[in-house]
């Protein structure tokens, strides 16, 4: 009995030791970055390549990720002392989730491609880019794209793949209905346009739109009514008012009088559903991202025109979206410098123009707009010009470290108002605001 | 030699590998989660501070938690009860070793070997409010159509249906195995005593099958409480949390809101809940189960 007890105690100790060592594993990796710094500093003559981990939202083997991977390769070839290593982390959410885990494990990348609005959360770990990038690059970014890049006046997020919502119109239908081809300026006008464009006999809806998975279009419309998402320091929800609910009411009204195709009557493919109907000529106006431009103007048998996102109350205001690059401040000085160089490289005219032409994401720099190649492109496809011009009215994104959690909650409420259009929009927005405020209060 | 033998034969040495694995992969994470559940952990700043029971209080004050808890209990009740009753009935019909029985058995078992993703995608098509076959069938019978997982009223029902369907084949297999292990001579004796079909079913089959059914009950309850894939793939807990279950909710708190403390507190509450149900299970049913 005694021996058994002893053994049992020994086993317990063994388990504890394993537990403790498992736990203390954290500490050696803590110093990883410093080790790296010491190594790099003490052995300059060894000429070891500076390795820069770059976490992308895209898989480097295909599509946009392939284009980015090509740019990385070009950069690495031109800079033999640096090696940028790109890895796809599974979209905006994937990068955010893995960054969170990496912060806990103290094993962060050097560059992270994060959704524009996430700087509110990652600001404490993001480096001051003006220290590592050239000032001329930073000044060269189109001003409308950097409104969410500054924290206390410090530039921390470099625009990468960026977008903004615009109104697509079937120009032939607009012309046939005898409407002003410039398109509606206000949401009220949009409603009137939609009424005239709707043709139940042919199965044509005047308009369609949706919220997207982060309620991006709702956010954008709320700005256009003069509303806000959260207050300046992100401590209070600011959309629990008429400005927050007007667009919900408008969409509900239009769905009820059948001038708007309700994308929420079917499965989770609202974007594709609307685009397909637009391409088939069954939806005359589509409120969608600039990202869909290529698909919508190249595949149609009719003329497509675009207009600014409508507003109400006299002032244009809308979101931008997509991703910015941040440099994680914990990286070594060499890594940060190399990363800055890489971001400078991505912003060179040649790279900006080719990325824009191949992806449809907005060109990010002013000088790229002045290149003959881009000028010619914009002459041929003037629809892009509208979206670029619209950037002057870009609204900054919500400054809250909990924004991702808030929009995940918001979108459920906004969706419910379109699935069941008898819901009171004010009540829906109020409920969303209460839930959002709770998230803020619980995660101070 | 004898010494070495003695050491090797020491039971604690023999169970050491298991204990070590359990300690590292189960015990340590559980204890760590208990610790984190009392903390406010800012993952970005890397700051941790003890906040006492604040995370637990926040959960109890959260209406979503109560809704999710209610959903989980409803989900578990229906998937377990319907799943087992259906399996029992089908098992009774398929227990003979005929070719047709085996064929039907295989067909019913198929969903089990398919991946959850493809199965749910298929069901999402069947349940589409506009073009889904299920609504066509309802219309055919002159019944009102449903919005299935698009509506708060029917979303929970939709995932219950898919879960039952997916688990049915496995349950039927187990029931049939149980039925076939009941000795024939008992039935023959019952026949000689002129026992009717129902008497045989309730007096012989059911009691002798009770260990099998008890096993199914326990495993079904556990799997229904930890259901995640169906929710994540079909509804993401929506609309308005109407189909959100506790495990998915914990995931949302932890990995969408990055509130690790609250998510850990939720996990601990979940663990306590499942433990209580397991204890009740054993206390209530163990006596009624007839082991030969």
Automatic annotation (TrEMBL), chain A:
Residues 24-45 are annotated as: Disordered. Keywords: Signal, Transport. It comes from the Bacteria. The keyword Transcription regulation does not apply. The keyword Heme does not apply. CDD domains: PBP2_UgpB. GO terms for cellular component: cell envelope. InterPro entries: Bact_solute-bd_prot1, SBP. It is found in: Cell envelope. PROSITE patterns: PROKAR_LIPOPROTEIN (PS51257). It holds the Pfam family SBP_bac_8. Coiled coil: none annotated. Residues 24-42 have a biased composition (Polar residues). Its main location: other. Belongs to the bacterial solute-binding protein 1 family. This is ABC transporter substrate-binding protein.
Automatic annotation (TrEMBL), chain B:
The chain crosses the membrane at residues 12-34, 73-94, 106-126, 156-179, 200-225, 268-285. PANTHER family: ABC TRANSPORTER PERMEASE PROTEIN (PTHR30193), INNER MEMBRANE ABC TRANSPORTER PERMEASE PROTEIN YCJO (PTHR30193:SF37). The keyword Kinase does not apply. GO terms for biological process: transmembrane transport. Belongs to the binding-protein-dependent transport system permease family. Residues 69-281 form the ABC transmembrane type-1 domain. The keyword Transmembrane helix applies. GO terms for cellular component: plasma membrane. Keywords: Cell membrane, Membrane, Transmembrane, Transmembrane helix, Transport. It is found in: Cell membrane. It comes from Paenibacillus montanisoli. The lineage of its organism: Bacteria, Bacillati, Bacillota, Bacilli, Bacillales. This is Sugar ABC transporter permease. Its main location: membrane.
């Amino acid at each position: 009995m005694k021996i058994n007890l002893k053994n049992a105690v020994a086993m317990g100790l063994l388990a504890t030791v394993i537990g403790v060592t498992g736990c203390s594993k954290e500490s050696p990796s803590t110093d990883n970055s410093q080790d790296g710094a010491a190594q790099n500093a003490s052995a300059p003559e060894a000429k070891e390549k500076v390795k820069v981990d770059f976490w992308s939202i895209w898989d480097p083997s295909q599509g946009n990720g392939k284009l980015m991977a090509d740019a990385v390769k070009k950069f690495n070839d031109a800079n033999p002392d640096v090696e940028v290593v790109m890895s796809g982390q599974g979209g905006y959410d994937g990068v955010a989730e893995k960054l969170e885990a990496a912060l806990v494990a103290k094993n962060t990348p050097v560059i992270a491609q994060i959704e524009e609005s996430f700087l509110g959360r990652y600001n404490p770990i993001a480096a001051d880019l003006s220290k590592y990038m050239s000032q001329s690059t930073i000044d060269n970014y189109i001003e409308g794209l950097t409104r969410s890049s500054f924290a206390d006046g410090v530039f921390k997020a470099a625009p990468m793949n960026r977008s903004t919502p615009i109104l697509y119109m079937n120009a032939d239908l607009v012309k046939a209905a005898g409407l002003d081809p410039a398109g509606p300026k206000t949401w009220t006008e949009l409603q009137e346009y939609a009424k005239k464009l709707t043709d139940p006999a042919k199965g044509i809806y005047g308009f369609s739109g949706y919220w997207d998975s982060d309620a991006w279009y709702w956010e954008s419309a709320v700005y256009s009514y003069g509303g806000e998402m959260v207050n300046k320091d992100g401590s209070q929800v600011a959309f629990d008012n008429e400005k927050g609910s007007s667009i919900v009411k408008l969409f509900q009204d239009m769905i009820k009088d059948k001038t708007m195709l309700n994308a929420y009557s079917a499965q989770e493919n609202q974007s594709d559903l609307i685009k397909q109907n637009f391409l088939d000529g069954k939806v005359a106006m589509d409120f969608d991202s600039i990202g869909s431009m290529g698909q919508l103007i190249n595949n149609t048998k009719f003329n497509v025109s675009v207009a600014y996102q409508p507003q109400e109350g006299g002032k244009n205001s809308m979101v931008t979206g997509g991703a910015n690059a941040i440099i994680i401040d914990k990286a070594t000085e060499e890594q940060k410098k190399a990363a800055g160089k890489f971001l400078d490289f991505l912003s060179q005219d040649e790279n900006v123009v080719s990325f824009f032409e191949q992806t449809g994401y907005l060109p990010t720099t002013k000088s790229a707009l002045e290149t003959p190649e881009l000028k010619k492109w914009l002459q041929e496809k003037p629809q892009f010009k509208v979206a670029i011009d619209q950037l002057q009215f870009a609204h900054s994104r919500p400054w809250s470290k909990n924004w991702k959690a808030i929009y995940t909650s918001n979108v459920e409420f906004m969706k419910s108002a379109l699935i069941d259009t008898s819901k009171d929009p004010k009540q829906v927005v109020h409920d969303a605001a209460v839930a959002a405020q709770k998230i803020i209060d619980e995660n101070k | 030699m004898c010494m070495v033998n003695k050491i090797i034969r020491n039971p604690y040495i023999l169970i050491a590998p298991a204990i070590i694995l359990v300690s590292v992969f189960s015990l340590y994470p559980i204890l760590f989660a208990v610790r984190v559940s009392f903390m406010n952990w800012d993952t970005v700043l890397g700051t941790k501070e003890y906040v006492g029971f604040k995370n637990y209080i926040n959960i109890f004050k959260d209406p979503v938690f109560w809704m999710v808890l209610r959903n989980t209990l409803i989900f578990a009740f229906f998937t377990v009860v319907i799943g087992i009753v259906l399996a029992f009935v089908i098992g009774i019909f398929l227990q003979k070793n005929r070719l047709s029985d085996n064929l039907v058995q295989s067909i019913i078992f198929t969903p089990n070997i398919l991946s959850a993703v493809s199965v749910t995608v298929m069901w999402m098509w069947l349940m589409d409010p506009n073009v889904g076959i299920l609504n066509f069938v309802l219309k055919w019978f002159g019944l009102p159509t449903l919005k299935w997982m698009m509506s708060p009223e029917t979303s929970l029902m939709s995932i219950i249906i898919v879960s039952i369907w997916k688990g049915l084949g496995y349950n039927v297999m187990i029931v049939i195995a149980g039925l076939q292990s009941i000795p024939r001579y008992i039935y023959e004796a019952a026949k000689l005593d002129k026992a009717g079909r129902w008497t045989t079913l309730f007096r012989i089959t059911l009691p002798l099958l009770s260990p099998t059914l008890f096993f199914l009950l326990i495993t079904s309850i556990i799997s229904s409480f930890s259901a995640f894939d169906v929710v994540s793939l079909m509804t993401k807990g929506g609309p308005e949390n109407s189909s959100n279950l506790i495990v998915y909710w914990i995931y949302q708190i932890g990995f969408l809101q990055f509130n690790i403390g609250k998510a850990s507190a939720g996990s601990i509450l979940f663990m306590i809940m499942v433990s209580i149900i397991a204890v009740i299970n054993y206390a209530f049913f163990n006596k009624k189960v007839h082991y030969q």
